[in-house]
Amino acid sequence: MTQAPRECWWRARRAALLAALGPRDCAYAYDLAVVAQQARRLLRLESIARVFYAMKANPHPAILNTIAAAGLGFECVSRGELERVMATLPAIDRSRILFTPNFASRAEYEFALAQGLRVTVDNAWTLHAWGAIFRGREIFLRLDTGLAHGHHEKVRTAGAGSKFGVPAAELPEARAAALACGAVVAGLHAHGGSGSFEPEHWLGAARELAAAAPQFPGVRVLNLGGGLGVPETAARPPLDLAALDASLRGFRTGHPPYELWLEPGRFVVAEAGVLLARVTQVKGKGERRYVGVATGMNSLLRPALYGSRHEIVNLTRLDAPPAGRCTVVGPICESGDVLGEDCPLPACAEGDVLLVATAGAYGHAMSSHYNLRQPAEELLV
Ligand SMILES: *Cc1c(COP(=O)(O)O)cnc(C)c1O
């Protein structure tokens, strides 16, 4: 099928990255060509009728522009995201925007409906309590298929322990609530988690949604969510998109009435972004060697929150041989402020630039001002 992104585009762009960083002590750097390439790979999936980018992964305006130009729509989870996408792309057709919030207020739904956007509802209560705002509207209903997946417990969004969706046993109630308020359920939605490498995961979701669909005669679309995994290192095989497509093509043959939609976030942007950070201090303590850099969990929370791993290299000394294993830490006053454990790095000097790879998704988007430290700004290279 299609090629994975050029492995480590940043290796060939070392000089440009260092020049872009300039005198700064940290920054995110994005390559929009990688974003466009990933978007195109998704659009080539024959089984999928429409692809929406889950913009919470990275809502940078230039990234939204690139993705819109490639032909993807947008999946939004808050009023802020809706406003960002409509401000960045004022001419965008509203049918290219989905609103799939969770435990959002009535006012947020009212805003989205007033904008003419398609909304996904995640429980019967919403339809009972706010029935009038959904009267005569087409809505999607989020199901809990029970099929959780993902790289960490905190990113699994299905199953009895998660707050998301309507489980199969409660569908009759949701159906009755939709009927009572005069809403038409035109699509069913499932999003089981983030970071899956099993092509069959989405087939499982499609089957569960198709099994529920006869209860809702208006359903034409099965939205299989996102969660397409991106390898943390070059050693891990990537998600087999061709296998995913083949399994879903088979599903489509058996279920002709339904269109399949997909809404990945991470897959589109993760590999397009790197975090650059200058070495502040190096330290040996007991057995461990620490390399401190100018920013940490305030810019990239994923390692602290999910134990996620990111490849880290010394961009200043890219070809120098490793001198041992180091723990790369930031300047935040928390033990969890670790960007990487057990990283094979050359001897690092104050001022060197370390590069944290695969940081384009859920990086800057989750950053904070904790410790009153400015998180890394974003640059385009
Ligand atoms: C976050 C989210 C996605 C995207 O998840 P990725 O793992 O980034 O692909 C898709 N759909 C919904 C409803 C989400 O909340």
Can you give a write-up of this model?
- The protein has 381 residues and is of the alpha/beta class.
- The chain has two domains: 32-269, TIM Barrel (Alpha-Beta Barrel), CATH 3.20.20; 270-380, Lyase, Ornithine Decarboxylase, Chain A, domain 1, CATH 2.40.37.
- 28% of the residues lie in helices and 22% in strands.
- The chain is built from twelve helices and 17 strands.
- It has helices at 14-21, 32-43, 61-70, 79-88, 106-114, 124-129, 131-134, 171-181, 200-212, 241-254, 266-269, 302-306, and strands at residues 26-30, 50-54, 73-76, 97-99, 118-121, 138-144, 166-167, 184-189, 221-223, 259-262, 273-285, 288-293, 312-314, 325-329, 338-344, 353-356, 377-380.
- Helix 5 links the parallel strand 4 (97-99) and strand 5 (118-121).
- Helix 9 runs parallel beside helix 10 (241-254).
- It is elongated, with a radius of gyration of 22 Å.
- The two termini are 28 Å apart.
- Residues 1-6 have low confidence and may be disordered.
- It binds pyridoxal-5'-phosphate.
- Residues 54, 56-57, 75, 77, 100, 191, 194, 225-228, 263-267 line the site of pyridoxal-5'-phosphate.
On the 0-100 scale, what is the average pLDDT?
94
Distance between the termini: 28 Å
How would you name the CATH homologous superfamily of the largest domain? Alanine racemase
In this structure, how is the largest beta sheet organized? 8 strands, mixed
**Weakly predicted, low-confidence segments:** 1-6
Q: What is the ordering of alpha helices and beta strands?
A: HEHEHEHEHEHHEEHEHEHEHEEHEEEEE
- The level of helicity is 25-40%
Shape: elongated
Rg calculated over all Cα atoms: 22 Å
The assigned CATH architecture of the largest domain is: Alpha-Beta Barrel
* Distinct bound molecules: pyridoxal-5'-phosphate
